[in-house]
Amino acid sequence: MSHGTEIYDGNSQVEISESSRWLRWIPTSMAQLVKLESRILNCLKSTLEKKYVLLPQSENRIWTVVANKDKPNMPLVMVHGMGGGVGLWAQNIDALAVKRPVYTFDLLGFGRSSRPNFGTSPKLVEMDYVESIEEWRREMKIEKMALLGHSLGAYLVSAYALKYPQHIQHLFLIDPWGFPERPQENERSKRIPIWARAIVKVLSPFNALAVVRATGPFGPGLIKRFRPDLQAKFSHLFDDDTMLDYIYHCNAQTPSGEAAFKALTVSLGWAKNPMIQRIADIDKDLPITFIYGSKTWMDRECGHQCKYLRNDSHVDVEIIIGAGHHVYADRAEQFNKLTNQYLDLMDKHKDNEDNAKSSQNKTKNEDTETDMEDVPITQI
Amino acid sequence: MNFSFAGCGFLGIYHIGVSSCLRQHAPHLIDSCKFAGASAGAIVSCCLISGCDLGECTKFTLRLATKARSFSIGPLHPSFKITKILRDALREVLPDNAHEIASGRLFISLTRVSDRQSVIVSEYSSKEELIQALMCSAHVPLYSGLVPPVFRGVRYVDGGLSDNIPILNDQTISISPFAGESDICPTDRNANTLHIYLANTSMQCSIDNLYRMSRALFPPHPEILSDMCQQGFDDTLKYLQNNKLLSCVRHLSIRSIITPIPVDEMDSNEDEEDNCDEHSCYECKKKKQIALLDKLPTAVGSVLQDAVDEMNKGVQGYIHRHKTLKMLSFLATPWFLPVDISYTYAVRFLEYLPQLPHDVQVMYRETAELLRYLLTNIRHQRRRYTARFTCQLAITEVNYNQIESDIYPMSHHNNSANEIDQIPQNIRNLNFEFAMDLDSDLKNQRELFDSAHHHADNIHFLYKQRPRSGSANGRLSGERDKRKQKESTSTLYSDVFDSIEQCLHVTNQMESIMAYHYWDENNRESCRFEEIYTFQEGDINLSKLFQKDIDLQFDSKSRHRSHSFGHSTKKSKCTLEDDLEDFAGHKLEVVMKEKVHKDCS
């Protein structure tokens, strides 16, 4: 363990938050979240290392779960989406960690990580997140990684890739949020009556999941009522409401991550600084893979657009049939298989690069021919 | 592969768009797939598989929408009888063998009224039954009517309330007019990450969906409906193209020759084989190109256009176009509406009159059932009640040796009254009256009663053991009626009989806290005893029957001509269990009757 990386005893943490308030409107506590998360992670077969990572500059703590830390291949880092946590990767960690270490962490403001106050400026929020990931990477001593992000996570890892491409070997964007530009008001949306607009106007100052918190003791029921699909996605791990409760406790606490998300958005979910405008600026040597679900409401066109915008680098768009926005949970097996294929290719490519480099060095001395061929990363 | 159509009221016109696309570009799917649906989705899919003219369906939907809009308060106006209109339309449009086509292929989602669970039906014995199932599935409570319709003797309402998109298996293609995670659904240009599930239907939290939901029961302008129809067509086309389900004539024929296996498997085979084939197939290419630019089929399209024109042409359209007139009609509504509504209701009532007696009967029966249900429920929830058991103890003493002959027939209460009359010559008669107030909130009532039974058995045993004395002294002939009473009640009393014995036993040993006696006014010969004892737990075997400090009141009196002193009434409070409520209830009834009977006599 390096300095600055501390393992916090989960229990001592728990007591503090437990004793702070005994009477509360929102029936949540860090202790419950800890319990649910450990129940979820107990389903995993890989060897797990769970710890808080203290970021030296911002003094925030990031809750980190590492699977199979000692595997030799290039590590994979996974970043969850809006309102999620490490528990959502329950069906993916084992399969992806067969050959390599898999790092997952709760983004700042979500799950068990610190919940700092982000500003309201989208630029600053984005920068805060990018820097937190970079600090975390330094603390974890990861030199190069495959970076995978889902939804909001995909937006953030793309922002990270803009600034620190040198640490990324391959970028996976799973049903990314925040890519398309906000369209002009068209004929059809003008037809929408005033009352509907009024409702939207009234609701817009609130955070996305405010209603879940405001309803207090009814919040868990609300999630069960309106998101039964979340449980269905994980039905072969849990029969009961574990997953729904986990989601509830992730989001019932201080909504700092949601506030940050809100700062990034304008009018119902459009990004203030759409990533599509900047995607071309990402280092062109960095291969990007988009994975969409066939049923998602996210604009899949963006993937193809990126392919066009980055025509001199590798961009692949994959669509998993039958999956919705939560691709990795809806069709976990296909998703894992697909991702592993890309990761294997990435490893091969990396080996070839290394070999090519070393053989180049050798050719200077021994004048041998390199018979290594770059495996095109697009062919699967 | 299956198709599942979401229930969506007037937005069902989206499904018509979908259906017309399926019929035009993937007819092989319609013949080989199963269809499921709720509400409007079920109706449209029924029309689709039974080969109805989709143009007619569109026309009907638009007419219905226009009609609904023509009333001042829209479809809520009482003279807009949507159920009747729908039923008539279905009768007309569906072929006579619709139920044969639909059985096993059309799965209709219903919501059972009694427990609000989702029920899916797929077998129909007649066309009328199929229509009835469709009507049940489309019955929006309050909106379509107050009384839910009946299908096979059970009341159902809108399937959309419990399961709006019935998923039959993994390969179900869900079709919904709401933007969300369905296979075929409109895509709003919207990036909102919030998304909910309502009765199984995935819905994005977007302003468009909000608008659509508001329009599901209150139809929008035909023009908007026509847009939705078009959208359904386009979305389906997109889906078919993305999933390589478009068929061309040539490939279709090849397929049907090659494979008797189900379509879904076939598709995967064919993907591999056909990849090269498809490129060379001119028809496929052409079809795809046409499909790219294709619009709604003319049958549907022209109907839509007509309806829009109609709407804009008439007086209604004129009023709707001009704001001042619209405002005026709006202001006039409060004046005309009451008259209008009362007139409609009067007409409706007259139409309804012949069915009134039958409905009243049904209502009465259901109310009675409900009341009974409530009563039993209340009784179950109320964990305490009181009951009174009474028992009489009368001892007529003449000769000690002959006491058994009196008790003996009592224990054999099944003997006929005559038999008893023949053995009445006892010298010493014993008569009990035993009253017990039961006030329950203990948990071991069953145990209590069991133990009571057990003790009662013991008593019988005891009686039998006693030597039978066949003495026939006719002295106590007046005892007859008393004994009859005893006989009728002994069945009941035997349950708690032992308690009396216990009481007697205890009272002999204990000192009463209060005791008095007096001579009966009516009968100078008899004397009344009143004694009150306090029981402590553990004093007697059955002490667990009684709460602490229960007062037992002994009222021993004799009304008999013979010189006697027996006849005691004991009242005690006892705790009983809720498990035995029914049992105790019975007892209570009998006891009360007995008491009344005794009071009378």
Describe the structure.
The complex is a heterodimer of chains A (380) and B (601). With 380 residues, chain A is of the alpha/beta class. Chain A has a single domain, classed as Rossmann fold (3-Layer(aba) Sandwich). Chain A has 15 helices and eleven strands. Chain B has 601 residues and is an alpha/beta fold. Chain B contains 22 helices and 17 strands. In chain B, helix 4 (54-70) packs antiparallel against helix 5 (82-93), helix 9 (222-242) packs antiparallel against helix 13 and helix 14 (315-321) packs across helix 15 (323-352). Chain B is globular, with a radius of gyration of 41 Å. The two termini of chain B are 80 Å apart.
Principal-axis shape of chain B equals: globular
Count of domain modules of chain A: 1
Mean pLDDT, all residues of chain A: 83
Please identify the structural class of chain A as seen in this structure.
alpha/beta
- Rg of chain A, rounded, reads 22 Å
Per-chain topology:
The complex is a heterodimer of chains A (380) and B (601).
Chain A: E1 5-6, H1 10-20, H2 30-41, E2 48-54, E3 61-67, E4 76-79, H3 93-96, E5 102-105, H4 122-140, E6 145-150, H5 152-163, E7 168-174, H6 187-190, H7 194-203, H8 210-214, H9 219-226, H10 228-233, H11 242-251, H12 256-264, E8 265-266, E9 270-271, E10 288-293, H13 301-309, E11 315-320, H14 327-330, H15 332-366
Parallel strand pairs in A: 4-5, 4-6, 6-7, 7-10, 10-11
Antiparallel strand pairs in A: 1-2, 2-3, 3-5, 8-9
Helix pairs in contact in A: 2-11, 4-5, 4-12, 9-11
Chain B: E1 2-5, H1 12-25, H2 27-32, E2 34-38, H3 40-49, H4 54-70, H5 82-93, H6 98-102, E3 106-112, E4 118-121, H7 127-137, E5 150-151, E6 154-158, E7 172-175, E8 195-198, E9 201-204, H8 207-217, H9 222-242, H10 249-258, H11 263-280, H12 282-293, H13 298-313, H14 315-321, H15 323-352, H16 356-381, E10 386-389, E11 392-393, H17 403-411, H18 417-422, E12 432-433, E13 436-439, H19 445-465, H20 480-493, H21 497-509, E14 514-519, E15 527-535, E16 550-556, E17 573-574, H22 581-600
Parallel strand pairs in B: 1-2, 1-7, 2-3, 13-17
Antiparallel strand pairs in B: 3-4, 3-6, 5-6, 8-9, 10-13, 11-12, 14-15, 15-16
